[in-house]
Each structure stands twice: as C-alpha cells, then as structure tokens.
Amino acid sequence: MTRYLVNWPALLLPLVALGTVGLLGVPVPQILVILAVLLALAAPAEGAKIVHFALFAYGAYGLFKLHSLQIYESQGVHYGLVTASRAVIAIPGGYQLTSQTSGFEPMLAEAVGFIFLAVCVLGVTGAPGGRAVRRAVAQLRGGDGQPKTVPPLLLFPVIFLWEELFSEHLWFAGTAAPGVLAAAIFAVGAALIVRLPQVAAVIAVVGTIILGLYGVSMGVHWLTTGGNPYGGAVGAPPFGAVLVNGGSSELLAGLQGLTLLGFGGFLVPRLLTWGTDAALAARAQALTQRVTRLTESRSDAIEVAVAELRRIERDLHDGAQARLVAVGMSLRAAEELMRANPEAARALVAEARETSSRALDDLRGLVRGIYPPVLADRGLADAVRALALDAPMTVDTDITLQGEPPMPVAAAVYFAIAEALTNAVRHAGADTVQIGIGYAGGMLRATIADDGAGGADASRGTGLAGVEHRLATFDGILAVSSPPGGPTIIAIEVPCALSGHEPARQAAAPPQTIA
Amino acid sequence: MRVVIGEDLFLLRDGLVRLLDAHGFEVVAAVGSAPELLRALTELKPDVGIVDVRLPPTFTDDGLRVAIQARRACPGLPLLVLSQYVEQLYARELLADQAGGVGYLLKDRVFSDAAFADAVRDVAAGGTVLDPEVVSRLMTKRARSGPLAALTPRERDVLSLMAQGRSNAAIAAKLFITEKAVSKHAAGIFANLGLAPSDDDNRRVLAVLAYLNS
C-alpha cells in the first residue's frame, strides 16, 4: 500500500491513456489504457518517473491537435474529457470550413491544464527537474531558511505563454525555421535562468505584467462592448488557457489577465530587494548547515564527556579508592596488634605505606589521562615534547607556536597526538616518528608521521574515531593517510586563536590540592 | 648539614622538617613560596635544598624555575627536586648545566625516610639521584635501537641503578653480585657507549645521562 501512496503520480498514467482513446489511430485503443493500468499497479515507482513526460506530451499533443482542428480537420476529436468538432460545408469544387466550432476552448484549457499538472507532478516527485521546480516553489513561498524571492524558473512559463500567443507563426507555421526560433528562445531563456538569474527574473515579471495587461484589456473590451455574443475570427490566438474568439472568452481572458497582473505586481517588490534576498538566501543556507553540524558535534561532545566521567569514576573506584580501603584495613589491624604483636603491627603499617604509594600511582595515571599536569603547567609545545621523550621509539619534534591555544583545544590536540603515538607503537611498530606543530591563518596544524607498517584507519578501531569526534567539537578535522606498508601520516587541523601569554599563568591560581 | 626546604603544603613541609631533624640535618629555613625560596637559597647558601616543583604564585613549575635560577646564581648548588609527577622533560632541564648535585624524585619516596635521607646526602655530596620512574622511561626509550641495544641485560640493570644515583656498593647489594662485578659491568657500559671511563660517581652518571639524553 505504501508503494502506491508514495508513487501516487503513477496512477495518473491511466488518465492519460484514457484521454488518448479516440485520438490516435490505434485499432484497439483500450490496449493503452490496460497497459497504463498494469504499469501503474505493477511498477508504480517507474510509472511515477515517467508520468510527467506523459502529461507533458499529452498536453503538447492537445495543443497540436487543437491547431490542426482549427485549420483543416473536419472530423470531431475526443481529447481527454472534451469533444471538439468542426462543421464542414460542401461547396461546388471543394470543401469550405465554417466558422462554427465547438469544444475548442475547453480543449485548450485541458491541454494547458495537463501541462500544468505535469509541472506539479514534477515538483512533487523526485524526478530530474523536480528539484528545480521545488526550489522555485520554495523561493516563492519562502521556507527552509529560504527568504521569499522571484524564482528565475518563472521565465519558462512566461516564454511558453508568449510563444503561445504567436503559436500561429512559431509553432504551427508549416516551415522549420520559426520552430527553430521558438526552440532557440527557450534555450536562451534556460541560459539566462542558469547564468543571469536576476535578468531572467526581471524579464519573467515584466513579461507576466504585460501579459496581464493584455488580458485585462480584453476583459475591459468585453465590458465596454457589453459582451459580444457572436464569435470572432476563426483560429484566434490562444491566450494561456483561453481561446479568445469573442464572447465570454474575452471575460475569461480578462480574468486570466487580472490573475497574471496581480501575480506580477506581487512579485515586483521582491525584484527590488533581489540583491539582499540572494545574499540572505545564501547566508540562511550556510547557517542551517552550520546548525546541523553544531547539533551533531554537541551531542558528540556530551557523549564523550559522559563516557570520560564514567571512566574516571570506574578508575577511581577500582584503583585508588580500593587501595585506600586496603590501607584503612591494614592500619586498623595494626592498631589491634600494636600491643600484642608489635612486629606484625609494624609489618602491617609498612604494607599500608606501600599500598598508599600504589594509590598515588593510580591517581597519577588517572590525572594524566584527564589533563596531564605538564600540559596544564607548560602548555601544548612542552607537553608534546614530554610525550616525545616518553615514547619508546625515536620521536623528533618540530614545534613552532607563538602563543598558547585555548585549554580545551590544547587538550584535544594533545590526546590526538598521544593516540597517534600509541598506534604507531602498538600497531605499526614504527622506529621513528616525526611530529610537527604549527599555526597559520587561524589554524593550528599538527602532523604525526611514522615509518611503521601502515594500515591505520579512522573507521576501524575506536581510538582515532574518538579523537576525530573530540576534534569535531572544535570544528577540527583529522585526516589519515596510511597505505598498507606505510608510512602513516596523520594530519590534524583545528581553528583557534593563540593567546600571547604562557599557559596556566593566564588563569587565576587554582585552589591548593591535597598532596 | 644545613638544609633549606621549599614546600607550600603545611603537612608535608612539617613532615619533612621532622624527618630531616631525625636524620641529623639542620633545617635553616622552611618556606612556602617561590620568591621566598629563591631568596633563602641564594642568601643562606645551604648545603642542600629540597624543592617542590609546584609552588605559589602560579602553582605550575615555579619551584623548578627557582631551582634552575638558583643554580645559575650559585653553580653546583645541590638541590633535590620533589614532585607529584615526574617528567623526563624536567629531568633534562635540571641536568642541562651538568654541574652535579641534582636530585629529581617523586614525593612518594619521602615515605621511605631512610632512603630519602640517603638521597639528600647523595645530592649534597654532588651526586645525581633520579627517580626510578624517570630512569625506567629513559631506559625503555632506546631499547630498540641506538646505544642501549649494544648493552647486555645485566649492563642495562647496572646502568639504570647508576642513573638512580646508587654507588657501586649499593648496586652490588641490590643485584646480589660483588662490587668487583659491578665495576666490570661499569667498564663494559662505558666501552659499549664509547665514553671515557671515570671513577667519580657523579661524573659517571652525568656522562651517561648526558649521552642518553642527547
């Protein structure tokens, strides 16, 4: 069922097929209808992709057929819901067409309606060109962070309406040249829409207003002449969805003109603010993207922080806290034994001393994993040099920093480098590592290159992925080049400002900690 | 022996004074901030100073800076630097002037007061005493390639104990070998590292460390 709900445009195919019954010289025209129904039911997705082509073609065919009828055909035509016909008078020596027509106006309206329906379907489905239509609608309505403006795509229907007025000379002239001209005008319009959207928008609005005035003038004519019940010339030019040949058609043309005029007038103010609108649109889009990215990295940051707190709690619980409990127990036992067995008591106290030493070791390790003291006291440069000294293999450092990055950024970069070094040791078996840190153009850059076996991957293994997330919180990026066989190069870039002062000295003295 | 103490935590400062008193040292000053410490060291010129790395006003590495500054003013002034955490980087900075009489220990070592007092005396005598933590990291550093690879495991053990400031006798006791064996290993170390042999404890350690740190 969802298949049909999602691809409901496919269900318009049988409608198109129905309309062709009676038009084409198909022996059993109902076959088309059956095929269309089968296609709509069996493959609605594919049907939805082609239905707008079918609607366009059907509308265009209707226009063509209308013209043919107007000029020379004598039999009736069944088009869609309309039957149009001409009367023919036989005269000596040939035939003469009467000026009596019927069903032509509705037929034009229906043909234009099918073309309009094709555009609507295009806008709704994901077919190519649908995106352009949707963007045009968004530009008209404003929405999705898109301020209201004039869609340049409007130029296409305006060109269509204008060419329709001159269809006699352009589309149905009988020779190829005018048709080529008509196509060329469309092509120029397309180029304008893409290259000079503002020019396209201006032409579209001006064209709409002139057309509107033209229609309104016909309506005024109808009013001033009190309505003309008798038909006008045969083969009158179509105007939008109205065939103007006197009578109430002029009223309809007037109403259509009024609509066009109103629409054009509505769009004029937006033309005047075009420049700012375009800038606003671009800015709105950029902001929307940024908000999305920030929301993602914020939730990442929260996850990372929570995970870290949990790790600290666990390490404290299993490590230092456990040892301190053991110390307390040893001391308590020593208290009991002090008088009765002083030697045993001494041994217990020595044990307590040893355990408290190990508790200090645990705490040292924990602190190092949270925020290494050397990073807090000396800053990123010296902290990385200390890392380099502690690593088991040779690590050369080339660090040039004129100031100190903000503490959270420094911590993120420090741990990134630490993780990269760990990987170099553990996975790559590297002998030499080169670390470079620099700052240029508002970006802090760090590279870690090792001559190990390579094969590192940010998507495998959580170490580098966690680092990447942590860096993303500051709009930082991490890039890994690690072909199997090495060498591995990890590059980090974080935008930040360097302070001119030395680290920690800029902060107020922290409260005294317990030794 | 006259001692100056620079430690801002009252409990620990008091404990150090007591410990040193008990082991026959004379505490001529016990101060709690970097400026006071610098003044005490340069004016009182003690036989040895005990310095905490982290001191007011900034609580970062003020004590370390005072130590380096004091030794610039009084070259070879024996100083034992204590810290909550040890970094090879800081050890390097302390050893840079190669003047001897430097100690760099974790505060935990204070728990074993006899050993601590020995360390203070070693430093006062011009020796170099590095915390085993620092030494072990130094030793793992070049285990793969470089000069350490040329040493036998036994020689590495002797070297690491030497770097911790132990005398030949102490090393012999620790490794359960004779002093003569220790001397032989020491000679082997110097030969393998391509250094001139020396009997002066301090010069030995300094030479080795300078070499390893290069």
Question: Please, could you describe this protein's structure?
Answer:
The complex is a heterodimer of chains A (515) and B (214). By secondary structure, chain A is an alpha+beta fold. Chain A contains 17 helices and ten strands. In chain A, strand 7 (432-440) and strand 8 (443-450) form a beta hairpin. In chain A, helix 5 crosses helix 6, helix 12 (274-337) runs antiparallel to helix 13 (342-370) and helix 16 (407-428) runs antiparallel to helix 17. Chain A is elongated, with a radius of gyration of 40 Å. Chain B folds into two domains: 2-130, Response regulator (Rossmann fold), CATH 3.40.50; 135-213, Arc Repressor Mutant, subunit A (Orthogonal Bundle), CATH 1.10.10. In chain B, 53% of the residues lie in helices and 14% in strands. Chain B contains ten helices and six strands. Chain B has a six-stranded parallel sheet with strand order 2-1-3-4-5-6, with helices on both faces. In chain B, strand 5, helix 5 (113-124) and strand 6 form a beta-alpha-beta unit. The A-B interface holds A 353, 356-357, 360-361, 364, 367-368, 373-374, 376-378, 382, 385-386, 389-394, 431, 503-505, 509-510, 512, 514-515 and B 8-9, 11-12, 54, 56-61, 84-85, 87-89, 92, 106-108, 111-112, 137, 140-146.
Summarize the structure.
The complex is a heterodimer of chains A (515) and B (214). With 515 residues, chain A is an alpha+beta fold.
Cα end-to-end separation of chain B: 34 Å
Task: Note the main sheet of chain A.
Answer: 5 strands, mixed
Q: Provide a count of the helices of chain A.
A: 17
Provide the helix percentage of chain A: 55-70%
| Biggest chain-to-chain interface with counts | A-B, 31 and 30 residues
